[in-house]
Amino acid sequence: MMKKFFAQAYVWILLIILYAPILIIAIYSFTEAKVLGNWTGFSFNLYRNVFSGGLNNSLVRAIENTLSIGLISAFLSTILGTISAIGIHNLRGRKRKVMTFLNDIPMLTPDIITGISLFVLFVALGISQGYMTVVLAHVSFCTPYVILSIMPKLRQLPANIYATPSQAMRKVIVPQIRPGMISGFILAFTLSIDDFAVTLFTKGNGGLETLSTYIYADARKGGLTPEIRPIMTLIFIAVLILLIIINFRSIKSTKK
């Protein structure tokens, strides 16, 4: 009885630690106070500023960069991840184990090491850093997650497919792994918009900012722009809705 109580208490404490900061930001997105933690009365004005063009230009550009880089990175990662997953699945024995192990390494490597490594690579190759290097960097660390999302679906494929390679790809493989591709795309997108360390090391000095680097620079000035609170709340709600949809689709397909 006590063991079950402590296990449940541990889970609840962990959930509170994880979600309390998000809840606090969401609560204070409904007040105009410039300092987080200072409640000056309930208000929708910060949300009005977000949707009525009341944001400063640098923040708007950071949001646009974040979304565009996230979508492009997710699209490219999904294509590369799908091709790579099919290739790994078709390997046999030790080769498949080696490739699977190599795919796991980037996911276990700390972001700061990935960022520094890519920074050194771009400098060594003489590539000027900016928008494209950030996209390439995001594709590099998102692709392994897409592969990880698709591999379980490939294992569920029938062993014998009586069709030409192109027919098998169009009529059997892609329809079967589509849920994994969608999950991989959404996962890559959320990882991209969330990333800070890799972006910081690969964005260069041309003035490119994403939402994460903008928040970092804003915090170093002594505070955060109040409109960031509703933006972060909206992003969290959007990601939560996407995750619910994915889980619902997964449960529905499993029942079928």
Index terms:
globular, single chain, 76% helix, mainly alpha, 10 helices, 256 residues
- Which geometry do the CA atoms define? globular
Number of helices: 10
Q: Roughly how many Å apart are the termini?
A: 38 Å
Count all strands and give the number.
0
Gyration radius (Cα, Å) is: 22 Å
Mean pLDDT: 85
Strand content: under 5%
- Reading the helices and strands in chain order gives HHHHHHHHHH
What are the SSEs and their pairings?
Elements: H1 2-28, H2 45-51, H3 57-89, H4 94-108, H5 111-124, H6 131-155, H7 165-194, H8 197-202, H9 211-220, H10 228-255
Helix pairs in contact: 1-10, 3-6, 3-7, 3-9, 4-6, 6-7, 7-10
Description of the molecule:
With 256 residues, the chain is mainly alpha-helical. Helix content is 76%, strand content 0%.
Q: Gist?
A:
With 256 residues, this protein is mainly alpha-helical.
